[in-house]
Amino acid sequence: MMRWWFGEELGSDGTLTWGTEPLVVVFAVFLAVISLLLVYRREGKRKGLELACWFVSISVLVWAIADPYWNEDAGRTETGRSVVLIDESRSMSVTENGAQRGSQSAKIIEVLDPDVEIFRFSDELKSGMPEGWTGKNTDLGRALSTVADRYLGQSLRSISVITDGIDRGGLREALLASPTASVPSLPGPLTVYQVGHNTELVDHAVKGVQTGGFAFLRTAFFIAADVVGPPGGSMDVTLRREGRLVDTLAVDLDDAGVGQARFEVTPNEVGRFIWEVSVPLLANDGVPGNNSFPVVVRVVRDRTRVLQVCGSPSYDQKFLRLFLKEDPSIDLVSFFILRTHEDFSAGWYPEELSLIAFPYEHLFTDQLKSFDVVILQNFDYKPYFERSPNILLENIARFVREGGALVMVGGDRSFDLGEYANTPIEAVLPLELGVVAAKADENKFRPILTDAGRQHPVTRLLGNAQDNEAAWERLPLLDGLNRTKGLAPDAAMLVGHPSLRAADEQMPVLAVREVGRGRTMALTVDASWRWSFSEAATGRGNQAYLRFWKGALRWLVADPDERRVIVRPSTDNLLLGEDVRLTALVRDAGYRPTEGVKLKGWVEAPNGKRTPFDTQTLASGEAATVYTPTVAGAHRVRVSTTDGGEAETVFSVTTRDPELADIAPDALFLQRLASSYGANGSYREPGDDSPPLMDADAERVIAEQRQTSLSSIPFAALLFGLFASLGWWVRRRNGGR
């Protein structure tokens, strides 16, 4: 009753103070007396009643002007509060019988104390009702501990928790492992209200996918998916790669509705790809977002397949073949000392020839795509390619453009000496052919590292730039080189001749080029084997030779993430609506970061819609943009530069939320939580909205002084309005105005 009259409870041990200066109050009283005397002097039958009404209303007005306060000292006690904690995590949004779980909390709150303090919790405790079932990392133990700290030294009448029991903070795991596990100490009795029924939950889901994270090129690997569906039934499970159907398996489910689909996949190209496992979506599915599970798998090379073709045996061929054979990461197919079609036309029978027949047609048609690198080492194609030489050379050029690698090594049968000018091979080499005069120079020389060569991974013999340059200066003299007309327009010279010139620049000794999706390298000498002895003489072994060819092969077979133009997402998998940062890196032919390059790109969503973007590289060679996906599924990103460089990547967008990976209400955990508090704990099963446990003796000590204004209490306003109106009515009845 006191709260109704005065706006809030007033303690009995308080004191009254006045907020207005005494002179102001005296002046107000003086005016009030004058007003009452004027009423008293007026004639009328009901003058006494009118005077009484005006006396009450004017007294209330003077009271308000005096601005009284009721002061209560610190340390007083009041009745303990009631607290309710509502789980706002994503699992509370699960649909059961057409309604979200969280909506059941409104009915439970109706039976609680009207003055209950409401909190919401997920990863932390916040004041107020849930604003939506969007919380993450539900931690009930932390929420209860926060309540205990917040009301330290007080006792609460009741503590109510409304949740489905899907806790991710450790308390659930501890109690399920041991019913006697420690729980937070609480300042009041705990009542746990469970929402959500296991029996009413329908959910077909892909619970998880195991891939190993990466796979090897041309090697089968397995994608295993754990699925959930109708107990004892069967369910079709589908595998797609970036939206394209790969396979469908019928999976039998056990009595718990759990099964596993196991797909065998053999990738035929390197890169990053999105594989998505999905199960049928039902109309009444409780969590539609977990019916598919996308994963990004990176395909890498287990062993690099190298085809080495040599026109004749030599020290250079012998050293390179030995290096390739001894490297366990390389699968080598080598051909040298070959039969030519002239051997057959000379009148010899096949059984009289010791040389094997060169299966050139089979190699450069059917088998070519099975290799990563083709090395033409001092090889002149005309004596061997009896039929359709241009077609076979075009096959090699196409192999490069589609992602393969080609190396041409010098010698008396290479470059212009091998008559490769104006062939499809010249179109992909990093050098221009067609030298008219001397096609070779036999003078010894020491190769010179160029500016591009100081940066490029192929010519990085040592990590430190100064040590690397010193290592190149220590290399022995070379015996000569094949002359060329110079670099192709988009190639990079890594090593040059100290004195010979071609097209107003150094004569190239080592050059590289990116063509389409592939790479080529030209080494115009046949004496790199001498580099094995440069450090051997000083007791350092043949590291220069090994490092050069290892670096060359690594660069030649590089995956898309190591090209001159690359683009990467900040994350492979993200939730719908989250931002992803797309970063492009642009380097020149010598692998130096390029500033000021304008990039055009687009992001293609699964529905085919492309979102374009433009950006420009900074001094670091990087350019970035932010994209916010609006649909789920595989997204493809492509960027291009003004000089024809291109790169692409993929990322996956899903509506899957880790909070929804486990959506079955956990009654056992909630029962054990309530029983951990003995007589001060109680569990309410779904649908039971009976009142919570209450501690009638709970009280709290108020630590601060409270000051309550009495000038604006509802009772004063009611008195003033009532008696002022009555006084005015009496005056009108007496003929006044």
Account of the 3D structure:
This protein has 737 residues and is α/β, with parallel strands linked by helices. It folds into 5 domains: 2-76 and 704-733, no CATH class; 80-200 and 670-698, von Willebrand factor, type A domain (Rossmann fold, 3-Layer(aba) Sandwich), CATH 3.40.50.410; 205-301, Immunoglobulin-like (Sandwich); 304-443 and 482-528 and 549-558, Rossmann fold (3-Layer(aba) Sandwich); 563-654, Immunoglobulin-like (Sandwich), CATH 2.60.40.1930. The strands form 11 sheets. Strands 20-19-21-22-30-29-28-25 form an 8-stranded mixed sheet, with helices on both faces. The radius of gyration is 43 Å and the shape is elongated. It starts with a helix and ends with a helix.
Shape: elongated
Radius of gyration: 43 Å
Alpha-beta classification: alpha/beta
Superfamily at the CATH H level of the largest domain? Class I glutamine amidotransferase (GATase) domain
Determine the CATH topology of the largest domain.
Rossmann fold
| CATH level 1 class label of the largest domain | Alpha Beta
Query: What CATH architecture of the largest domain do you see?
Result: 3-Layer(aba) Sandwich
Largest sheet: 8 strands, mixed
Total beta-strand segments: 41
N-C termini distance: 38 Å
- What is the strand content? 25-35%
Spatially, the strands of the biggest sheet line up as 20-19-21-22-30-29-28-25
Question: How many domains, as an integer?
Answer: 5
Enumerate the spans where pLDDT stays under 50 for 5 or more consecutive residues: 343-349, 351-355
By DSSP (H or I, 4+ residues per run), the number of helices equals 16
Helicity, in percent?
A: 10-25%
Mean pLDDT: 83
